[in-house]
Amino acid sequence: MVAGVDKRPVGAHYGLRDWLSQRITAIVITLYTALFLGIVLWNGGLDYAAWKALFAGNAFRVATFLFMASLLWHCWVGVRNILMDYAKPASVRLALEIVVIATLVAYVGGTIQVLWA
Amino acid sequence: MTTAERPVDKPRPVYLDLFAIRQPLPAIVSILHRISGALLFLVGIPLLLWYVQRSLASPEGFQAVMAPFATPFGKLVLLVLAWAYVFHLLAGLRHLGLDLRIGIRLQPARSSAAVVLVLSILVALVVAVRLW
Q1: Helix, strand, or coil here: B62?
Q2: Is residue B110 one of the residues assigned to a domain?
Q3: pLDDT for res B119
Q4: CB contact under 8 A, A26 and B41
Q5: Which residues of A fall below an 8 Å CB-CB distance to B?
Q6: How far is CA B55 from its chain centroid?
Q7: N or C: which end of chain A has fewer CB within 10 A?
Q8: In chain B, how many domains are there?
Q9: What CA–CA distance (Å, rounded) separates A28 from B70?
Q10: Is residue B104 in a domain?
Q11: For the segment A45-101, what is each residue's pLDDT rounded down to a tens digit?
């Protein structure tokens, strides 16, 4: 320990929020994956009519949106961690982070369009 | 104590050559967790969105989306992405366990890393058999 350092390790962007959101989103993704695989395997594969009917249900749409939102949030934390490690010049890192954020927000829009259009 | 007063002045490496070091299994699982995650973000998610959109749009779209699964390249892409998804998920579950202080000692951590790797390969094999 360094003497004279008196910082609380929580409460002011020390990474706890990223750490926690990465785990909560991971659990949502895992649960949805189990649900989706369960539905597909239970029906022994889906044809177009069954696939269409599945996505017509509002509960499934909401669950899918929750999954996609978690997935994209999870992406942000993970990709940002990678960029912090390898994209050293701050300008390059910032530019890449903007591209990633824009892409993820576009994906959220795409998800809403696919589910409710 | 200044540098000159050091009792032993061993030559020390100024950098670590990652390819010269034999990585322990948990380190391999760790870097694969990162690589599989990057792959899923760069290729998996855009492909997933595009596929779901097309498959729901029309019966023709549904057929068109299923068509690549019949080509060797399409199968390969699907297999790699399926492995990446399963591996990333299993490595993540292992991580949640470590967070809860389950298996944090050296030997269990090595064993669980091996389990993640072997299990993901087994699932990939099942997917491969189903595809071909």
Answers
A1: helix
A2: yes
A3: 97
A4: no
A5: 23, 26-27, 29-30, 33, 48, 51-52, 55, 71-72, 75, 78-79, 82, 107, 110-111, 113-114
A6: 27
A7: N
A8: 1
A9: 32
A10: yes
A11: 899 999 999 999 999 999 999 999 999 999 999 999 999 999 999 999 999 999 999
Question: Is B13 among the domain residues?
Answer: no
Q: Which CATH number is associated with domain A17-116?
A: 1.20.1300.10
CB count within 10 Å of CB A106 equals 13
B85: its two tokens? 């998804």
Extract the tokens encoding B36.
């599989």
| pLDDT, tens digit, 9 for 90 and up, residues A68-81 | 999 999 999 999 99
Which pLDDT score, from 0 to 100, does residue B20 have? Answer: 80
Residue B115 resides in a domain: yes
Amino acid (one-letter) located at A51: W
| CA distances (Å), origin A22, targets A19, A78, B36 | 5, 8, 16
Say how far apart CA B42 and CA A100 lie, in whole Å.
Answer: 10
* Selection from B38, B33, B45 nearest residue B87 by Cα: B33
- The ranges assigned to domains in chain A are 17-116
| Prediction ipTM score | 0.87
Q: In 3D, which of B7, B72, B81, B99 has the Cα closest to residue B45?
A: B81
Chain A contact for B76 (CB, 8 A cutoff): no
